[in-house]
Amino acid sequence: MSGVEKKMGADVSQADAPILQVRGLSARYGKVNAVTDANIIVPRGSIVTVIGGNGAGKSTMLNAIMGALPAAGNCSGSVQYLGSEVLPWEVERRVAGGMSLVPERRELFGSMSVEDNLLLGGFRLYRARKPGWKNTMEEVFEIFPRLRERRAQEAGTLSGGERQMLAVGRALMAQPELLMLDEPSLGLAPRIVREIFQIIARLRSTGVAILLVEQNARAALQVADYGYVLETGEVILEGPARELADNPRVIESYLGLGNTRKDAMPV
Predict the structure, then answer these.
(1) In terms of CB atoms within 10 Å, which end of the chain has fewer, N or C?
(2) What confidence score (pLDDT) does residue 240 get?
């Protein structure tokens, strides 16, 4: 996908550097600590997941990385994106630099058509007069054929799975280099969850790096390359996703004692 491939001409050290490196990130609301001293690395072209239960601090971590904490929240530490410290940056500057967040609530414009929602996702590129920006819509339709079928339909009339597809497609319209997904499976039927995660796995081939936050640990670990386990705001485990899926503590707490490889979701 144009806009998300690795930049040509970069030196080897820059190309090998992670697209996102979070060090000692702490976030709190008032006096309540939501995330404490978290360290996360997202290599280029990879899928990294952060799993944990409800209230573990996963969404807060994403919002802190994106600079989207509410007024009552504040954070400290280091968030380096493409080698630049972005913690002091406003959300708009992070978006302009190629960071994109699909929030848990999806936040679509329900009375507008699917196509218009997608066009709004690419508005920044249109305003910057980037040549060929609108061609990205055709690429989004190739990833999500159902959106093409419903391009004239109001977003508010879509099914839950289709709304999630539209939210991801709108984010891709901005041609991000880092795509962050907050609970993409939330509220979806198991069959639709399977479809959404198959799409997430295929997005790896576009070159975009993905930071995936999920309660559905089983599905997340099956598509991810590397994973982190967050509990009460702290990273307590990390490792290759396949190793985490076999970790007894992860199995007991997040996958269920009956987890076996034969239960794996095909992607």
Answers:
(1) C
(2) 97
Q: Residue type for 245, please?
A: A
H helix count then E strand count, the chain: 12, 10
From the number of C-beta atoms within 10 Å of its C-beta (0-12, 13-18, 19+), residue 92 rates as: exposed
Which superfamily does 12-103+180-263 belong to? Answer: P-loop containing nucleotide triphosphate hydrolases (3.40.50.300)
Q: Is the pLDDT of residue 265 over 50?
A: no
Which residues are paired to 42 by β-bridges? Answer: 20
Q: What is the pLDDT of residues 248-263, one digit of tens each?
A: 999 988 886 444 443 4
CA gap 4, 233 in Å, rounded: 31
Q: What are phi and psi of 223, to 5 degrees?
A: -105, -15
Tokens 């319209």 sit on residue: 173
Two tokens, residue 83: 């080698």
